Amino acid sequence: MAKDVFKVLKKSKYSKARAGILFTAHGPVETPVFMPVGTQATVKSLTTDMLKEAGVQVLLGNTYHLSLRPGAELLKEFGGLHSFMNWDKPVLTDSGGYQVFSLSNMRKITQEGVSFKSHLDGSKKFFTPEKVIDLQRSFKSDIMMPLDVCSPYPCEREKVLLDMNITHKWERAAGEYWRKNTMNQLLFGIVQGGMYKDLREISAREIVQMDFPGYAIGGLSVGEPVDIMEEYISFTVDFLPEDKPRYLMGVGLPENLEFAIRKGVDMFDCVAPTRLARHGHVFTKEGKKNIRNKEFFDDKKPIDLECRCYTCKYYSRAYLRHLFVAKEILAMVLMSYHNIYYVTSLVKEIRGSILAET
Ligand SMILES: [Zn+2]
Prior knowledge:
Helices cover about 40% and strands about 20% of the residues. By secondary structure, it is of the alpha/beta class. The chain has two domains: about 5-30 and about 60-270, Queuine tRNA-ribosyltransferase-like (TIM Barrel); about 270-358, no CATH class. It has an eight-stranded parallel sheet. Strands 1-2-3 form a three-stranded antiparallel sheet. Strand 11, helix 8 and strand 12 (about 215) form a beta-alpha-beta unit. Helix 6 packs across helix 7, helix 11 packs antiparallel against helix 14 (about 330-355) and helix 13 crosses helix 14 (about 330-355). The chain starts with 5 loop residues before the first strand and ends with a helix. Bound molecules: zinc ion (ZN).
């Protein structure tokens, strides 16, 4: 199972970028790939048909949120996340670790797992490496992530070291549990180690040694300056095997994507494209624009002159600005669609140029 799930089709001559294919239970994924985040079994304001039209190949779901509501039992009854939300393409689910540490209070880490209180109703929960695999099995996720501890930024070395060691222990346990019965689901390893290069190296070496079908760079995009994030992307990626997919967690702004792809990253997820859209920010070739700006009041041009998405084909900046100011739901839909289409197309374009050696 851990073999041949990923194929590198072409390596760039000009950078460390590569184009490949990742094989999953719900079909192949062309990489590099951007994965929109569907926290509550939906990418906010978009139907799954719209996502497909925008060229989305794989969605990300959040184990923390889904396990609290609607709950793993219900998803299991529906045969998994795919049929529940009407999405027949691949799904990647995170381990929930990140949300336990960012959303829930009263959390307590032991060697066995993490206990916490639901941010919804205060009920007590306990995640172990095995439990988190079982949850993701109920979701029928194509790609699962193991329970980990994501250190905040900034963070003292002592604490990062502790977090890293627990992460390694949990990932080993998750890996052993998953190997007993893979159920055609992939499990990726996650590298932690905060902003300490020696720890990053130790973490990468240790995780790679556990031999997962793919590897993720965790613990970045947690509030550090962009130059530090880029430094740690470059540094960490070089320790990951060339023949396995590399996933950079939580990063997905156009400018960060281009950088990371050049360094050899294959997969990305980020809530930013849809979250920004809901706040009126849209991506264009000239950078991010705020649709609320007065200058767009009577602007007949589309958001982006070259974008071929539905929103840019039929609607003006003036109309979108009007919808946004009037707090109309359609503003969210049309701008979210554009941002997802924009990022997806950008990554696809880069993939094309890797394959064409340009
Ligand atoms: Zn567009």
